[in-house]
Structures are given as C-alpha cells and as structure tokens.
Amino acid sequence: MVTRAVLTGTELQMLERADPQGIAEAQRQGATHVSLVPTLLGRIDPEPFHSILLGGAAIPIERPSNTIATYGMTESFGGVVYDGLALNGVEMRTTPDGLIELRSPTMLRSYRDGSNPLDTQGWLRTGDLGLIDSATGMLTVLGRVDELIVTGGEKVWPHTVEAVLLRHNAVSEVAVIGIADPEWGQRVVALVVPMPGQLPLSLQAARELVRNQLPVASAPKEIRLVDSLPRTSVGKIRRMTLAEQHSSGER
C-alpha cells in the first residue's frame, strides 16, 4: 500500500492497530479506499468507500460489491492476485498436492539472512493450498497447510465452518481449530465469543447449522466459550496460539 500510494501520489493514512473507529475517522477525513483483513469488514460501514481490499485471511463468499479479494504476501511485494485473477506478468500454479506457487517480477531476491525461498526457475511455494479453475484461470485459496483439520480421514477447512457459525445471532466471533483426538485423529472445536445479550450457542445448534450447509465432518464436536480471540496487530487470528492453549487444556 505504501509503495502504491507513493507511485500514484495518493495521500496515505496509517493506523497503528486494526481499529474500526480509526477506519471510520479516516473515512470522515476523506479516505476513499481501505485495505483490511476480512474480520474487520463486519465492524465497519463499507458503503462510503469506493473500494475495500480484503486479504490476509479467508474471504467471505457473501460480501459487499465494493470489496476486492486480494492474494499475495511480503515475498511477492504485496497483492498479486485480485478477485482470483493474476496481475499482468504474474504467474500462478498449483502442485499435484494443491500447494499454490507464484512467480512474479516483484518477487523478493532473498531474505535478510541471504537465504532464497525461490526454486531455480523463480517459483515461490507459498504454503497455501488452492484450486485454479481450468476454464477461467481463477484462483480459489483454501487456506494454510497448517490450518487444515483432518478428522476421521476427512478434510475440514476452518474458515468454511467459521463462515457458517458467524451467521448465528449468538456468535460475535469464532475460530475453529483441530485438537488431537485418539478416535478421530483431530476433532473440530469451535471457540466462540458469545454475542452480548444472547443465549450462548449450544453444541447441538452449531452442529445442525453446519451440517445443513457443509459435509458432516465439518460439524464441531465441541464448543468452547471464550472472552476474546488473540489477534495480530492487523486483526488476524493467532491460530497457533489458540491451538497451543486449548490443546494443553488452557481456556
């Protein structure tokens, strides 16, 4: 964002933290575009912005028409895929096991320690799993390899379950993780921040809601109510922190 603002001569407002009030104030001061993680989308009024760039986490299927799904990383110098399509000069492909690989003129030369993550042909293996439509060439990002839950031999993507549970009026925030289970390998656990003034979401209600929209294996086997979810400064859920806390029995 900083580089683009410099190149286009656009004024840039930087927020220290992912803060809905700060975003609203920036809009009142004239901001017309904003870049944020999907979690913040539900906490701001999106209508005043000309466009909203979403990235850094799974993008909700249902979203305002002025949003643009972005995909990229520090190594690629930011977003290189927009609404599933690569920018000019950017190449993308998936390996036989579904890993996304990128090649771009903007790709890093090396890390600060001198190591180079690119292969000999300049491809970067991202650590994300995805699908590329053979007809349209559009990329669908499924999630990080280390976020995938395998329960009873079935694959479950946390963000798909979270998207369903967030539609329930008793859920303010939710994170879905896999916890080791002697019978299933991993069990699907939903960590729910209750919506104030609502009765807490029950396991039965959660399972019924998910099973009506996703494969049976995606239905949580456990609901844990939490006061908050740990996040990074830009609003991303710290999934590894949650997995460590709840796998060790911390609540």
From TrEMBL:
SUPFAM superfamilies: Acetyl-CoA synthetase-like (SSF56801). InterPro entries: AMP-bd_C, AMP-bd_C_sf, ANL_N_sf, ATP-dep_AMP-bd_enzyme. GO terms for molecular function: acid-thiol ligase activity. Residues 161-236 form the AMP-binding enzyme C-terminal domain. This is Unannotated protein. It comes from freshwater metagenome.
